[in-house]
Every structure is written in structure tokens, then in C-alpha cells.
User: Fold Superoxide dismutase family protein from Virgibacillus salarius.
Amino acid sequence: MRWLSFILIMLLITGCQPKDEKSKSVDMYNASGDMLGTITFNEQSGGVNLKVKLEGLAPGFHGIHMHEYAKCEGPDFKSAGNHFNPEGKEHGLMHPEGAHLGDLPNIEADSGGLVDADLMLPEATLLDGKNSLTRGDGTAVIVTEGEDDGMSQPGGNSGERIICGTLTKNEKQEESPTDPTQYNEKQEE
Ligand SMILES: [Zn+2]
Assistant:
């Protein structure tokens, strides 16, 4: 019963918060701090749409994934943690027990190193909830040197992380006093 009332309180809290933006533009940087383009996230009825516009990549396919922490610290961007995986699945769009919620199809850079791709994250949202890309402190989106094979654990054997950007809630100067994750921790008895 305690959990039921907790869920009801959570619904009240999230219901009272102002509506989040349904579109976000994320600047993408390499390990040297050069901005290589932007990814625009749009909330849609079937999930979150990504419009990927990048330059300066090696021609060919590259992996792209949402990661669990909004921290892009070079040179390896390991600060962003693992792939965003709130449902505890295996990695890979072709894995029978996959995929991570943050797994995306590979993007392809043309002979000039340009990427212009349109992708979907069907289970994700920019609004509140377990699958929110902006929940807590947010998430990161990272492009890798190689392509994701869609099957290998934990990251599709896609090589080094080369370009990173952070996706967070609306720019607020202070932390929300009703952060649901903090509340959750205090509930432990
Ligand atoms: Zn994954």
C-alpha cells in the first residue's frame, strides 16, 4: 500500500509541474571542443524524433546512442555512462532481448563527412516519466567512431566515442526542490 500511495504522490507532483518543451536543440562537440553540428529532438505521438546534422566525420557508418548521464567530458566521453536503458534490456536493435531505449540506427556520413539523418526513438519522451530523456539531470547523445553491429554487448562494438552533446530540461539556475529521485531515496526505510 505504501508503494501505491507513493505512485499517487508522484503523479500529483509531476502533474503540477509546468509543461516541458517539446523540442530541443543539442549542440554536438568533439573531444577537442569543436562544434560539429546539432541534433534536434522533437516530441511526437510515436516517440522522439531526432534530426541529425553533423559535419567533419569520417565517411561511412557511425553508431549513435543516448547515454545515461548528461556529462560530456573528453577525451573519451566515458563520463556519459552506459547506453540509456531504463527497462534493463540487452544492447542492440537486432538483439532478441534488446534493445536499450537509447539505441538508434547507424548514421552515415557522405564522402564530404556530412550527416543529415532523421531517426526515431520509439519508446522515449521529452516529457516526464521513466523513459524521459530529460528526467533527473538529463541524458547525453554520443556518436561513435565505428558502426554499431546491433548485437554485441555492451555497445555494439562501435569503437571510440567521438562526438557528444547533452540533453537536459529547460535551462534552470536552481535545482527543483521536488526532484522525484531525491524523494525516492528518502522513501527507503
Ligand atoms: Zn545499447
